[in-house]
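anyone seen this seq b4? input:
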Amino acid sequence: MNALNLLAGIIDVAGGVSLIALSLPLLLSNTQRNAFYGFRFRRAFTSAEQWREINRYGARWMVLCSSLLVVIGFIAFFIPFGDNTTLAFLWIIIPVLFLSTIPIIQAGIHARRIAG
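predicted toks r here
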């Protein structure tokens, strides 16, 4: 395992674990409506129940996608990057961007669905 494998693996695993940790209070409904934390859609601010529903739904997706990011991070330890920094960079950036965007999109779709 070279330095690129170590870097890519640590970043993906640490990113996934951090996102899971940030999602747990939302998943467990330990947060109130606020101006800083949670999935911030207009529908979420119509009532406390809507806030909990949208944020729990988004947090479930975030835990799922972040768990996949952790798995991708462990796989990075074994990918033969060699000296290919571009491949290592893409291995870090693409999963992080893709897997952190899916929960936001899913929570937005859910917010629109329960609005109707």
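Residues 5 and 41 are 38 Å apart (CA to CA). The two ends are 52 Å apart (CA to CA). kinda curious what u guys think
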